[in-house]
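User: My collaborator sent over this chain with a note saying "see what the structure looks like." That's all I know about it. Can you take a look?
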Amino acid sequence: MSFLEETSDFFTLVKESNFDLGLIYSQNPNGIYVVVLILLVLLLIVALFIRSAFKKSELLRLVSKIQNISDFDEFDSKLSKIALELPKRGSEVANSLNALKADILTSQLALLKDFNIKKKIKSYKQISSVYSLIANSSKKYANEELTKYYENKSRMLLDEDLIKEIENYYKNISFKENDIKYVNSIVTYANSLKNPESILTPLQEEINRFSFAFNLNLFKFAKALTKEESGKIFTNCNDKIDSLFSNNNVKISEVILSYMIENGEKQKVHEYISNLKNPSYLQSLYYNFFGKEENDDINLELAFVKNETQINENYKEYLDNKITFNWKDLGLIKHILNAPRVLETIGHIDYRNVLERIEKLENEVDYNAKVAEILEVARRAETIAKEAKAIARSGK
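Assistant: Without extra context I'll predict from the sequence alone. Here is the result:
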């Protein structure tokens, strides 16, 4: 007997028994089970229908009110939910979203207004990703206007809007140390594109508008960059600085030179001063750096001495005094005498006199060392003699 025939017989029995469940169950227990199963299926269908209707209503309400959300993360989360639910909730939701699409975009972008550029890059990428998902989710409804809008906006948000945000950022900063993390976020994003130079080249051009030779903030910025995070910006900025120090005529701010001296780059400053061919600027550096007690750096003074560029200077007097006041410091005096152009500066006679003084000092040091050695041997001998006497006495 088929399912339909069994069901028909069951309802005939129900009618004939005047709905006496005991009689029905005694004559056709399987029929009871079939009816219960049918009722359960119907209830399930109704429940699913109600749930679907509720979800649809909830989603329609979310679409209509999402513009009122004032927190970006919450907005992004709700829009992601719409994108995921869209294929399941029918064309009515798609049509509602289509009607509000421009307003939703405007409201969401307004939430980015006060974000820093690092957070804006992250947020634009999130929005673009969700818009791409909406475009794909809406295709089943053949709503070309909705699909095309989100496809285009997903691309334009990154190719146009975000690029403008990045450009607006780097054209309105001074490139200080606290800008580095934001510049690095731009570099990271640029390197994720097919053509990184579309962002990196104009960024570097903007940096180059400032003077690496006179802008201390820019100099600190460049020095704090890293190859790993800053990539080509690091390379280009440091090449700029290196080119300054390899140019014998360029002026580099005294403020920058002082900063370098204080931060472990004395040798680079010494080389710059010793090779500088600009007489007026070398004269200025001489007045500000040479022989200053706060520097306490003989190599800085010797860098000036090494430079053959003619300026109004008093190297000889300074070196004579340095040698005179430190005449017992053989290491320092030898270091001075061995430095370039010291012989020409103090003259052959004074140079020879200093050499003779060094020789006497070395002889004196050698003599004192030998006397000390003899005295030490004598003390040891005396100690041994005393120990011998003590042993002899104890043996008697």
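A starting point for your reply to your collaborator: The chain has a mean pLDDT of 83.
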